[in-house]
UniProtKB/TrEMBL annotation, chain A:
InterPro entries: RNA3'-term_phos_cycl_insert, RNA3'_phos_cyclase_dom, RNA3'_phos_cyclase_dom_sf, RNA3'_term_phos_cyc, RNA3'_term_phos_cyc_type_2, RNA3'_term_phos_cycl-like_CS, RNA3'P_cycl/enolpyr_Trfase_a/b, RPTC_insert. Keywords: Nucleus, Ribosome biogenesis. PROSITE patterns: RTC. Residues 15-346 form the RNA 3'-terminal phosphate cyclase domain. Pfam families: RTC, RTC_insert. It is found in: Nucleus, Nucleolus. This is RNA 3'-terminal phosphate cyclase-like protein. Residues 189-292 form the RNA 3'-terminal phosphate cyclase insert domain. As part of the small subunit (SSU) processome, it plays a role in 40S-ribosomal-subunit biogenesis in the early pre-rRNA processing steps at sites A0, A1 and A2 that are required for proper maturation of the 18S RNA. Activates BMS1 by promoting GDP/GTP exchange. Does not have cyclase activity. The keyword Nucleus applies. Part of the small subunit (SSU) processome, composed of more than 70 proteins and the RNA chaperone small nucleolar RNA (snoRNA) U3. Interacts with BMS1. It comes from Sander lucioperca.
UniProtKB/TrEMBL annotation, chain B:
Residues 83-248 form the Bms1-type G domain. InterPro entries: AARP2CN, Bms1/Tsr1, Bms1_N, BMS1_TSR1_C, G_Bms1/Tsr1_dom, P-loop_NTPase. Residues 437-472, 520-536, 549-581, 629-638, 727-742 have a biased composition (Acidic residues). It is found in: Nucleus, Nucleolus. This is BMS1 ribosome biogenesis factor. Residues 1-50, 431-594, 629-672, 710-752, 1102-1132, 1150-1213 are annotated as: Disordered. Its main location: nucleus. It comes from Sander lucioperca (Pike-perch). Residues 1107-1119 have a biased composition (Low complexity).
């Protein structure tokens, strides 16, 4: 009489290719759904998972308990059955192929839902041109998460050592408290930008580089607003990592406390054409203008984080005004539908004719799935 | 007496109250003010003064505490506008009158009689309330399941018998799973002949009920039966109570969607069932959705069956709807609906694609065959537009008889849709393309609408169409018809296109003239690679153009619901028209009469798909079927300057393995060196232009307007605000702007002004509200307000979106009547179906479908007669689930260690760890040892709550290793027998050991022989008889048993006989195995021989030395004097007697005299002593005096001496 009732109904999901690898693993961990990724670079000369992806899997294994990860011999097929998020004190040496931002973005999504509050020490490349740098995440992602009710004294991201690509040698400490539920938000009005802040950093090069960057960046931005302050951060000795480099992170803060940011860092040593600090500063400032043009309450690299936190909110309506959706975000929305069966209401808001507020905006609306942190212990 | 006499006759003069004068005025003043507290304070300030600050603080604290205790954490009110029917569960032991009560209540509300109550019965009880009745039988499985879904419990109690165990069991189940409203109903009250005993019983039962539920819980009395029914008035009263009752939200229910199934249909292919009767069934289940939003494709648990993935969810028109218009009057007969498909009420029930007609029992066998023809007819007649989309999405079309059915999703894939075999026309149908000329035609078609309509009048088909949906007729429809006519007339294979596309083309003008007129370029995107290769370029252009178009439309529209509806209609019509185009001639079509209806479903399905594709809005871009499509272009395309479409391409693995970065590269087309580009974002900064309602200057002006008018009281000067002027100025500006259409502006002017005024008022009101009673607002109030706002937002956000779209965003909301399709249900579910047992679909949260270790706090129920043993299987009811599992009990030591217990403590909480379904912390559970049969004893073994979820456990068991010393040095001993090898010892080096007598020690090092022996040091010398032990902790693993109770799969009538894994004790009992105990462990009667103590021997030498007191005494106790030594008694002579008497008298006298003398002497002596004392005292006093005198003199002398020595030293010298 009793047949096959012992298995639970949760079916896994299957994907092809290693694209959006992080999204799949993170959402799988949060939703508890198994995921199988096939054909990872199967046609490539060098098939299978790359080192940095393996490093991410290792990091996930460190913060979870009871995860089952199976990778076939060539590394082209990955099966991931998530365990429970455990948290605690974690140290991880990130692979140098990707910067710490790559790993940190995943951790930011997972950290509020751990069993115990997370204290992660990540070592590796802190700034590179491919991923959002730790400075940018610190100045944009953290205030964004605070809007969702994730705050408290233990919520911090500290750059202990700076390490530029390709040598790395940087160190970041990320601590995050645990939340049981996430608050719904209504971020529909970004308001006007009241000030611009930034960090111009340079390691293992002349400290004058940072000043040169600041000078040129100010030149562009001063046409719009006088309240600009760009800190120069020159790290020396042990804190300066293993490779030379410099860069700039700019953050525009609005009256309603949303942050738009842009950044640019010098090409890693031995790759590409070197860039003058003046050019870098000017280009970065233009990037910020581009970001302002896109607008919204969340900047383009944190769109997916905001959408995730909206999804995991209580069963209430959340709204966020975004700039144009990035390809990464669009894919993220699809993945959210796969993992949480949640669709966003997407409306375009066109600025009126006489307004000079940049491009079209997108208003994202959703009803949260009513996620509650099942990892947290009650006493 | 005289007083009594006087009063009745002579009335005293009444007091004349003063109406004027100072006294009256004073009084009036006093009256006006009243005796306020203030007054009292003034009159008696001492009474109100602070006596003690501490006490004042205490009273303040107390009042605050009381105030705060009343607060509950505010929750967002998520109840839908049209809530689902209230679930009323009627419970009670058998033969107590449950069915009768339900029948009476239904009759009371709907005036209908119901025979057998099986399955849920839903009725409309009032203008705003619906009720679902469900009877709960005596099976504990049913009781558990229904307690989880009940809103109100009617607990029937047989008063003639008193409380039965079931009642208490049910109450305890309720307590664990969230306490629904409980109302007691006493029946069988007519069996009491004596009025006094009746009253007494009522009172007793009431008070017992109160202690279980809460003080003052409602208990109803149904006094007696009249013709087999309860008295009408009493039932009516009960009904009134039910219909005004308020309910509290329960945590589990409000956080999970659930459906109490009131209808079940087996959808499995009959052929499959015939060939394999045991095959898994596809079943659709119906019911009102309750709790919270249900997402499609979610997981559900069916208690008694198992976990399942929902294949599909649709909502259906409400079979038991509330009356639409809210009227003052009561419900009429028509509105008092009753819906109980399981009880056979309703006759005809609709599915989304079928109609079921309930026939009397004699026809049951033929039902399948009989229903078919009628079904189609009825189906074609029913009004279906409400759920068209849903139907189409899920319906299946069989192209050839016997071929595999085509799912709409299959069709959606793309290419296949291009050539669909139309059985009507017996040919392949292909998509057709409009020519340029056609587009123009249509674009200007609004004028020749009428002619078109007239033209189409002759078409038979059109007429029918019109009949069907007259009200849905829109301009679009007309357009389409005109269009179709044109098509017919001019080109037979001319392509029909979407109006949208046409418009798009028109707007874009001539530059996109060559764009191929595929309305939905998405189709092309989804075409196979080789097909679209050449068309690629054109399509791309069309696509992007189309998209931007859509965006604009949407942003203008603000919500796409309407638009979509329009689209739908349009496409519906289009399907018709396409049909036309496909058909050789229209005449043929009309001749066939009803034939068009056959293809209706398919056509509509196509139309739906096309409509889906024709609306390429953002939603479609993100969520559309694009993901599965084979896309051939390798470059990301930009749509409307806003979106880059990223499509994972299966064909190109390079894309699938692209770089995973959240960075969004900037738009290359933006050149930030250009002034215009810079200008485009000027207003994003605080330095830019502000909005009207935020600009400081405007706000100031506004204030001026509002508060500008005032009169200076001192000078008498009146200041005027400049409202008029300013407005005038604005108007002037406006006028200046558009001189040419001045007249138009004038008309709008009033409107604008009015609007402005309204806005201003609104703003003022808001400002006032923000400022008003701000200082009273506490944190609690703020929180409440926030929740209120959120609730309003939740309601408002999707209020005006149509349900089809809404369910995609929100999920299916509670209150909807839904149909859930579940594939692969075990066949026993269908074959052993019994409507008396509730079927519940409990939705599961994000990771509640997984299994893991659960740590819980558990307490044996105080009414359960045994304690529970670790590793004995136990049936738990947790969340939606009922399952058997093997718990390990443990207790937490002071250092946080979880120590395994063999049994649960008798009256204490303990921890329990199980392997089971992941359930959120804080969820309550209850445990029973078995669910089979009914026992006299209380069945609920334990209750508790989930504390923690994990993938590993940390329970340890105490393990004592025992060894014996075989060689003892001073404090060192060699111990053997504890370990077997040197390696084992090496692992325990440094571990502390202890002897039973309490001597502590440490393991030092292993010895080579014998194996496992070691050297240990102790704090004292051991004895050979000592036993050394080492206390260690051994981790225990929790057995991974999760066995859902599948009681619903059992044959009807045996559903309460589910038996799972047996406990060890049961197994042994069943198999007749007797435990063979260790003989050492057996209890034997204790026989104690009397103890013999030797005499204490003290050496002679020592005896000598001892003092006499301690010396052993040699003397024997005096024995009896022998008879010869006893002296004889004397017998006196009379004379002797006399002498003796005299002597006695004399001696008595003498004695008396002596005594007297003695007392006298004593008194005298006393007196003498007193005298002496006195003298002594006087003497002492005298001496003291003398001494005093002496000392004084001596002192004076000394003083004199010292004084002289101080000053008279030189004199002396």
């Amino acid at each position: 009489v009793c047949r096959n009732n012992n298995n639970m109904a949760s079916h896994g999901l299957a994907y092809d290719g290693c694209n959006f690898f992080r999204q799949r693993l993170v959402l799988s961990t949060l939703s508890g759904k198994r995921v199988k990724i096939k054909n990872i670079r199967s046609k490539d000369d060098n098939p299978g998972l790359r080192d940095f992806e393996a490093s991410l899997i290792r990091l996930l294994d460190k913060v979870t308990n009871g995860s089952i990860i199976e990778i076939n011999q060539t590394g082209t097929v990955l099966f991931y059955q998530p365990g429970l998020l455990y948290g605690g004190s974690v140290e991880h040496d990130c692979n140098l192929q990707r910067s710490v931002g790559y790993y940190l973005e995943a951790l930011l999504m997972l950290a509020p839902f751990m069993k115990t509050s997370l204290k992660a020490t990540l070592r590796g490349v802190t700034n590179d041109p491919r991923d959002p740098t730790v400075d940018m995440l610190k100045s944009t992602a953290l205030p964004l998460m605070k809007k969702f009710g994730i705050d408290g004294e233990g919520f911090d991201l500290k750059v202990v050592k700076r390490g530029m690509a390709p040598g790395g040698g940087g160190e970041v400490v990320f601590t995050c408290p645990v939340r049981r539920t996430i608050r719904p938000v209504q971020l529909t009005d970004p308001a006007k930008i009241k000030r611009i802040r930034g960090v111009a950093y340079s390691v293992r090069v002349s400290p004058q580089m940072a000043n040169r960057i600041v000078e040129s960046a100010r030149g562009v931005l001063n046409q719009f607003i006088p309240d600009i302050y760009i800190y120069t951060d020159h790290m020396k000795g042990a804190n300066s990592g293993k490779s030379p480099g410099f860069g700039l992170t700019l953050v525009a803060e609005t009256l309603n406390g949303s942050f738009l940011s842009a950044e640019m860092s010098s090409m890693p040593q031995g790759q590409g054409d070197p860039k003058l600090p003046e050019d870098l500063g000017r280009d970065c400032a233009k990037l910020l203008l581009e970001e302002v043009h896109r607008g919204g309450c969340v900047d383009s690299s944190n769109q997916s984080l905001a959408l995730l936190l909206m999804t995991l909110g209580q069963q209430d309506v959340s709204k966020v005004l975004l700039g144009p959706l990035s390809p990464y975000t669009i894919e993220f929305l699809r993945h959210i539908r796969d993992f949480f069966q949640l669709m966003f209401k997407i409306e375009v808001q066109k600025p009126s004719e006489d307004e000079r507020k940049g491009g079209d905006k997108v208003l994202m609306t959703c009803v949260g799935v009513g996620y509650s942190n099942i990892n947290k212990t009650i006493k | 007496d005289d007083f009594m006499e006087r009063t009745p006759f002579k009335e005293q003069k009444r007091h004349q109250q003063k109406h004027s004068g100072p006294k009256a005025e004073r009084k009036k003043l006093k009256k006006q003010e009243g005796s306020t507290e203030e007054d009292g304070r003034k009159r008696n300030p001492k009474a109100f003064s602070v006596q003690s600050a501490v006490r004042m603080a205490k009273t303040f604290h107390r009042s605050q505490d009381i105030k705060t205790k009343k607060h509950h954490i505010p929750h967002v009110d998520r109840t839908p506008l049209e809530p689902p029917p209230i679930v009323i569960v009627v419970v009670g032991p058998p033969k107590v009158g449950k069915s009768t009560l339900i029948r009476c209540l239904i009759k009371n509300f709907t005036r209908q009689k119901l025979g057998d109550i099986c399955g849920p019965v839903t009725i409309v009880s009032g203008k705003k309330r619906r009720l679902t009745f469900m009877e709960c039988n005596n099976d504990i499985n049913t009781m558990i399941d229904l307690a989880k879904v009940a809103d109100l419990v009617l607990m029937l109690i047989d008063a003639s018998f008193g409380f039965e165990m079931e009642t208490f069991e049910f109450l305890n189940i309720c307590q664990v799973h969230g306490f629904p409203r409980i109302m007691g109903v006493l029946t069988h009250l007519d069996s009491f002949k004596n009025n006094k005993t009746l009253r007494k019983t009522k009172k007793n039962l009431k008070h017992r009920f109160w202690t279980e539920v809460y003080q003052g819980a409602k208990l109803f009395y149904l006094s007696g039966m009249v013709y087999g029914e309860y008295q009408i008035q009493e039932v009516k009263n009960l009904g009134r109570f039910i219909s005004v009752m308020k309910f509290r939200p329960l945590v589990w229910q409000t956080s999970h969607p659930y459906v109490l199934v009131d209808r079940m249909e087996d959808l499995t292919d009959p052929e499959r069932v015939r060939t394999d009767p045991k095959c898994d069934r596809t079943v659709s289940l119906y019911g009102y959705l309750r709790g919270t939003h249900l997402k499609n494709k979610g997981q559900v648990h069916i208690p008694g069956v198992g976990d399942f993935q929902v294949a599909d969810v649709n909502f259906l028109p409400d079979p038991c709807a509330l009356p639409e218009a809210q009227k003052k009057r009561a419900l009429n007969e028509k509105e008092r609906l009753l819906y109980a498909p399981m009880a056979g009420v309703g006759g005809v029930v609709y599915d989304k694609d079928a109609v079921y007609i309930d026939l009397p029992a004699s026809h049951v066998n033929q039902q399948q065959e009989e229903v078919r023809p009628t079904t189609e007819l009825v189906q074609s007649l029913i009004d279906t537009h409400a759920t068209l989309d849903a139907k189409m999405a899920a319906s299946k079309v069989s192209l050839f008889s016997g071929s595999a059915t085509l799912d709409s999703t299959d069709v959606e894939e793309g290419p296949r849709e291009e050539c669909v075999w139309d059985p009507n026309t017996q040919r392949k149908r292909r998509k057709v393309v409009f020519t340029e000329k056609e587009e123009e035609d249509v674009s200007g078609s609004s004028d020749d609408d009428e002619d078109g309509d007239v033209d189409s009048e002759d078409g038979d088909q059109e007429e029918q169409e019109e009949d069907e949906d007259e009200d849905n007729l829109s301009t679009f429809l007309k357009d389409a018809r005109a269009e179709s006519d044109e098509t017919e007339k001019t080109v037979t294979d001319a392509p029909p296109a979407k109006k949208q596309k046409v418009e798009g083309g028109k707007k874009r003008g001539e530059e996109s003239a060559e764009v191929p007129a595929f309305a939905d370029s998405e189709d092309d995107l989804e075409m196979s690679e080789e097909e679209s290769e050449e068309e690629g370029e054109n399509v791309r252009a069309g696509d992007s153009g189309h998209c931007s178009e859509e965006d604009e439309e949407e942003s203008g529209d603000d919500d796409d619901g309407e638009e979509e509806e329009d689209d739908k209609e349009e496409s519906e019509d289009e399907s018709m028209e396409e049909d036309d185009a496909a058909g050789a001639t229209m005449k043929k079509q009309t001749a066939r009469g009803l034939r068009w209806k056959e293809g209706l479903q398919q056509k509509a399905s196509e139309a739906f798909l096309r409509q889906q594709k024709a609306a390429p809005n953002l939603r479609k871009l993100v969520y559309g079927s694009v993901v599965e499509a084979d896309d051939s272009d390798d470059e990301e395309q930009e749509l409307g300057g806003l979106f880059r479409v990223s499509r994972p391409q299966n064909s190109k693995k390079s894309q699938a393995n692209g770089v995973d970065s959240s960075r969004f590269d900037p738009d290359a087309s933006h050149n930030w060196d250009l002034e215009e580009m810079l200008n485009s974002i000027r207003d994003c900064f605080v330095t830019g232009k502000w909005e009207e309602d935020q600009d400081a200057a405007t706000l100031l002006k506004e204030d001026e307007e509002l508060y500008g008018d005032f009169e200076d009281l001192e000078t008498g000067k009146v200041h005027k605000g400049q409202t008029g002027e300013q407005d005038q100025a604005e108007n002037d500006e406006d006028d200046a702007d558009d001189d040419d259409n001045e007249s138009l502006v004038k008309v709008d002017d009033d409107e604008v002004q009015k609007k402005k005024r309204l806005e201003k008022k609104q703003r003022l009101k808001e400002r006032f509200n923000a400022e008003y009673d701000d200082e009273d607002a506490t944190y609690f109030d703020d929180l409440k307000e926030e929740m209120q706002k959120q609730a309003e937002l939740n309601r408002a956000e999707f209020a005006d979106v149509d349900d089809e779209t809404r369910v995609q965003y929100e999920g299916f909301r509670p209150g909807m009547y839904v149909r859930l399709e579940i594939s692969s249900l075990p066949c026993e579910f269908v074959t052993n179906f019994d409507p008396h047992y509730p079927i519940i679909l409990g939705g599961l949260g994000a990771s509640e479908g997984n299994v893991g270790y659960l740590q819980m706090r558990l307490k044996k129920h105080r009414w359960y007669h045994r304690i529970l043993k670790t590793r004995d299987p136990l049936i738990l009811s947790l969340g939606w689930r009922r399952f058997q599992t093997i718990p390990l009990y443990h207790i937490e030591d002071h250092n946080g260690r979880h120590r395994l217990l063999k049994y649960t403590p008798q009256h204490m909480h303990c921890g329990a760890s199980i392997w089971g379904p992941v359930t959120p912390q804080g969820t309550g559970f209850l445990a029973v040892q078995s669910v089979a049969g009914t026992k006299a004893n209380f069945r609920i073994a334990a209750t508790g709550v989930i504390l923690d979820l994990d993938k590993s456990v940390t329970i340890v068991k105490k393990l004592k290793l025992i060894g014996y010393p075989y060689k003892i040095f001073k404090n060192t001993s060699f111990i053997k027998g504890m370990f077997n090898t040197v390696l084992e010892v090496a692992k325990f080096e440094g571990a502390s050991v202890r002897t039973v007598s309490g001597v502590r020690g440490q393991i030092k090092k292993a010895l080579s022989t014998p194996p496992g022996a070691y050297r240990a040091t102790f704090e004292d010398r051991l004895l050979m008889s000592d036993v050394v032990f080492l206390r260690s902790w051994y981790p225990v693993s929790v057995p991974q048993l999760y066995n859902p109770v599948t009681s619903l799969l059992l044959p009807a009538g045996q559903k309460d006989s589910w038996a799972g894994m047996r406990t060890l004790g049961q197994l042994k009992h069943d198999l007749g195995i007797r435990n063979k105990p260790n003989t050492d462990s057996l209890y034997k009667p204790v026989v104690r021989a009397p103890r013999h103590f030797n005499r204490l021997h003290i050496p002679k030498e020592l005896q000598k030395a001892l003092p006499f007191k301690s010396k052993p005494k040699q003397q024997q106790p005096k024995g009896k004097t022998p008879r010869d030594l006893q002296r004889p008694s004397v017998i006196r002579e009379p004379h002797e007697k006399k002498v003796a008497a005299l002597l006695l008298a004399l001696s008595t006298v003498h004695n008396h005299k002596r005594k007297k003398a003695h007392t006298a002497q004593h008194a005298k002596h006393k007196e003498f002593l007193q005298q002496k004392e006195k003298l002594e005292e006087a003497k002492l006093k005298r001496q003291k005096e003398a001494r005093k005198k002496l000392y004084r003199i001596q002192g004076q002398v000394d003083q004199k001496k010292s004084r002289s020595s101080l000053k008279g030293a030189p004199q002396d010298d």
